[in-house]
Amino acid sequence: MRYATITADGELSHHDGPLDWAALIGPESKARVNLPGLAVAGWVNDVGLIYPKRYPRNVVGSCVLAALGAPIQPYAGRVVVTGWNPDNTWRGLLEIESLPEPVTTLDTVHGDVLKALAGQTPRQMSPSWAEQIREIADHVRTAPTPGITVRTVKLP
Predict the structure, then answer these.
(1) N or C end of the chain: which has fewer CB within 10 A?
(2) Which residues 6+ apart lie within 8 Å of 72 measured at CB?
């Protein structure tokens, strides 16, 4: 299985081997990050923002996911990117596939995000795109940690 990871310090790396979700994103639960129109999906720790010491906010990963069409929000811990085919289902288990080759789109977007965060404008992007990436990064760094509300329900 081919997949890529973006660590919380922004490093992108490609891997070929079995997916060990507990080792990659943590033992809690994984959440799929929808990337509309692409044959790939992002994966993050479902409760990562609740444990900031264990799973620091992934500024670069959050910006890459947003640039690929994901909802703009902070994502914490390591981001995993796999192939995704929602039409290839058998009891809902086989949507995850190997990352398609070549993975130039992911590599290019990652490089563009790094340039934008360094204050540069990537050659093929507009200055407004680079500014939007910097705004997303600021949001990821400063957005409040989501809270949990527990309510008691009185049954009749």
Answers:
(1) C
(2) 62, 66, 136, 139
